[in-house]
């Protein structure tokens, strides 16, 4: 992922590469030992195709290495 200020990502829409809306970015987790970003936590739109795991609170968890910033949204590559 290119260098992007985290504050600019707040409440961004997150979409799959095929245009399916996953939901809205709620939180970003990081590794406390290294400071590296690890996961995006996304509030689902209700139409998520089930390609990423979910947390107990139903948020979708997407590894940061699957994310590419877009102009108006974050683009996510599905798992291989």
From TrEMBL:
It comes from the Archaea. Residues 1-79 form the PRC-barrel domain. Pfam families: PRC (PF05239). Transmembrane segments: none annotated. This is PRC-barrel domain-containing protein.
